[in-house]
Specification:
mainly beta; five-stranded antiparallel β-sheet; 3 helices; 9% helix; globular
Length: 493
């Protein structure tokens, strides 16, 4: 055998070994539990299965045929409110019924934003390829579209470009002639009167936001009193991989006071908070959160939770209150498992929970869906089998507590061959009480309603009286302070 043939055989063997090694690395971790088992108020949490390389199973988008629509739950009907949109993600309905849609995508990397770490660059490159296959690539339109159903037939026949030239916009809110828009790096306020076809005038910057890659969406929610604005900002990494300095101002929810123009951290330790809404029962702020990756297909569940002021949910050091992530290099704060909050409700592992709305006065979804929350689960890229790719409903009791398992509202996005017709992204109430669902890879806004349903009545707010301050210990004699129990001398400092 000639030397040339030997070299050729050696090269072929190396290539074969490379394919075998790649197949081994990419085989991933197959889930042992159903999505439902890792959902609800008491999810099953498996032992972590640490992965050196993430499980990858991309559902490639193939679009909807002209005569196709998602599968709606019994009693619901789904139609196309608008289509042909360029990557629609967040939706916001104005008081006059006009619907705003952010046509947006991940911000481009600027030279000054580039991380010098070779490992991080490789990781970002691979992530870009994977997200591109999932339909998240391309150059975003970076604009806000206005949709109007002027004749009330359930389809938006008017479409205008309300605002363009933005930088990966997502969060939207409006009050008193001002439109609030969150780019990936700042919250801006534009003068805007209802009914206008475009925004005129320059914006006013309210606050800077930590910019750039990782989790780039920055979502907004106005307090019902309209004096406070809440801003959700996700982490740049999975578990603080680039150092906690890179996470400054991230993995948290900001509160911005519109009266005093001041800001404070409202809740922290939230890896990637997305949907924001206020509970109609308690008045508390709730959010959907995407949890960490690479602990196997059964961990960690994304979740829905309330966020009291000052709450800490433990990212990156712990998950689900007291489960320590041994992979984190950053020093763990003392006693964090004591004060970290346990999320209220698990939504399943890797489902990518995004949009959130509570049932509202005037909603026309029928009695079955009359007291709870609607959540868009965008769909996994790193679970076998895939999870999410649907819209679900979480029932709440009369005191405002989630219960049971997620109930399917819209399905049929994921096909049997593991391709996907689309990916549900955001949910919002239309002015007529129907539920609007954005499908970002298909470029469609779906409209869901229970035909013939009466508009929902307003909820009665739970208002518990304040407990009186406790002035003394009461009970047994051993639980009562006596004169000799008080210190008579100043302790040494």
């Amino acid at each position: 055998m000639t030397i040339g043939k030997k070299i050729l055989i050696a090269i072929l063997v190396l290539i074969l070994l490379g394919f075998v090694a790649a197949a081994f690395l990419l085989r991933g971790n197959t889930a042992e539990l159903s999505v439902e088992a890792v959902a609800g108020t008491d999810p099953t949490l498996q032992e972590p299965n640490e992965e050196g390389f993430p499980t990858v199973q991309i559902a490639e988008p193939v679009g909807w045929a002209a005569d196709e629509a998602p599968e709606a739950a019994e009693g619901l009907a789904v139609t196309r409110f608008a289509e042909g949109l360029d990557h629609p993600r967040t939706i916001h309905t104005l008081p006059n019924g006009d619907v705003l849609v952010a046509l947006t995508g991940k911000p481009g990397t600027k030279p000054e934003d580039a991380d010098p770490s070779i490992a991080t660059r490789i990781e970002n490159f691979i992530a870009g390829l994977l997200m591109g296959r999932a339909g998240a690539g391309g150059d975003p339109a970076n604009e806000i579209a206005l949709l109007r159903d002027a004749d009330g037939d359930g389809t938006a026949e008017i479409r205008e470009t309300l605002l363009d030239g933005l930088d990966s916009p997502s969060g939207l809110a409006w009050r008193d002639g001002t439109l609030y828009v969150a780019n990936h790096d700042a919250v801006l306020a534009y003068p805007y009167e209802l009914g206008a076809a475009s925004v005129a005038g320059e914006p006013r910057k309210l606050m800077d936001l930590s910019p750039g890659g990782g989790h780039w969406m920055r979502n907004l929610e106005l307090h019902p009193e309209e004096d406070l604005l809440y801003v959700a900002v996700g982490s740049v990494s999975n578990i603080g991989d680039q150092g906690m300095e890179a996470e400054e101002g991230r993995a948290l929810i900001w509160e911005y006071n519109l009266e005093t123009n001041t800001q404070r951290i409202f809740g922290a330790g939230l890896r990637n908070p997305n949907g924001l809404d206020f509970s109609p029962w308690s008045g508390e702020l709730w959010t959907t959160v995407n949890e960490r990756d690479m602990l196997g297909s059964d961990l960690v569940p994304d979740y829905l939770t309330n966020v009291p002021v000052g709450a800490q949910y433990g990212w990156p050091w712990v998950y689900w209150k007291n489960n320590i992530d041994q992979r984190v290099d950053a020093p763990m704060p003392a006693y964090i498992t004591e004060y970290a909050r346990r999320p209220e409700y698990a939504l399943g592992p890797h489902v990518a929970a995004l949009g959130l709305v509570f049932t509202a006065e005037g909603a026309r979804m029928g009695e079955r869906f009359g007291q709870g929350a609607f959540i868009a689960r965008h769909g996994s890229w790193n679970r076998k089998p895939p999870s999410g790719y649907d819209v679900v409903y979480v029932a709440f009791d009369e005191r405002g507590n989630p219960q049971g398992k997620p109930v399917p509202v819209l399905g049929g996005f994921l096909k049997d061959d593991d391709t996907t017709r689309g990916r549900p992204t955001w949910v919002e109430w239309a002015g007529d009480g129907s539920l609007l669902v954005s499908d970002d890879t298909a470029g469609i806004i779906w409209r869901v309603v229970a035909p013939g349903a009466q508009p929902a009545a307003a909820f009665e707010r739970e208002n518990a009286g304040r407990l009186p301050p406790q002035r003394e210990l009461v009970g047994g004699a051993r639980a009562t302070f006596r004169e000799e129990d008080y210190a008579r001398e100043q302790p040494v400092q």
